[in-house]
Specification:
The protein has 114 residues and is an all-beta fold. Helices cover 0% and strands 53% of the residues.
């Protein structure tokens, strides 16, 4: 059974930084594609960043140059370093596994104040 648990969200001022973490349970983590998605109030859930088993990464256009996704296969964890945060980055951030995503965490709230 795959479980994903996010942490690291909170309230931050615009221009600040946060680091989100996601710990995964279940087999074969090192080959899994992992994602961070974001859902703002009243909007659809959008992909923020993806990291593939081989380490290749992909970012949503709105976060390129500001966010960095990484993974630790030994600890079965995925991270999202968020820099130069903007109010429009506010939302619930979800960790997801699979391609397409088939397992989701419960989400962690990120609020960026102006």
């Amino acid at each position: 059974q795959v479980q994903l648990v996010e942490s690291g969200g909170g309230l931050v001022q615009a221009g600040g930084s946060l680091r989100l973490s996601c710990v995964a349970s279940g087999p074969i983590f090192s080959f899994s594609t992992m994602h961070w998605y974001r859902q703002a109030p009243g909007k659809q859930r959008d992909m923020v960043a993806t990291i593939y088993g081989g380490g290749r990464v992909n970012y949503g256009d709105s976060v390129k140059g500001r966010f960095v996704i990484s993974r630790d296969n030994v600890k079965k964890m995925v991270f999202l370093q968020m820099n130069s945060l903007k109010p429009e980055d506010t939302g619930v951030y979800y960790c997801a596994r699979g391609e397409p995503p088939s397992f989701w965490g419960q989400g962690t709230q990120v609020t960026v104040s102006s």
